[in-house]
Amino acid sequence: MPLSNSQRRYLRGLAHHLKVVVMIGSKGLSETVVKELNRALLDHELVKVKVGAADRQARAEMIAALAESSKSVVVQSIGHTVCLYREHPDNPQLALPR
């Protein structure tokens, strides 16, 4: 589900005040981290994730793998923090602008 620029801007504004919900440490992406992220996305739709990879390239690859495995969209990535969005399949909580 690609997001338009206005939708990304809206979600970035909402994500600004959010706390980090999921943290990925030095061991990298595991099945339990993906399960926890899926649960958080189901509960909140918009979550912040802290990625502990030190190398930029490794961090970018981990973020792409995280978004792909959770079927979510990267709203914004700044430093070690990434905001992910996935609409709830039954009861969407956030109304995105067109």
Description:
The chain contains three helices and four strands; from the N terminus they run αβαβαββ. It is α+β, with helices and mostly antiparallel strands. The protein has a single domain (about 5-85), classed as 2-Layer Sandwich (Translation Initiation Factor IF3), CATH 3.30.110.60. It starts with a helix and ends in a 13-residue tail after the last strand. The mean pLDDT is about 90.
Name the structural class. Answer: alpha+beta
The Cα radius of gyration reads 13 Å
The CATH C-level class name: Alpha Beta
The total count of helices amounts to 3
> What is the N-to-C succession of helices and strands?
HEHEHEE
Short description:
With 98 residues, the chain is an alpha+beta fold.
Highlighted features:
98 residues, alpha+beta, Translation Initiation Factor IF3, 3 helices, 4 strands, 41% helix
What's the structural blueprint in terms of helices and strands?
Blueprint: H1 5-15, E1 20-24, H2 31-44, E2 46-51, H3 56-70, E3 73-78, E4 81-85
Parallel strand pairs: 1-2
Antiparallel strand pairs: 2-4, 3-4
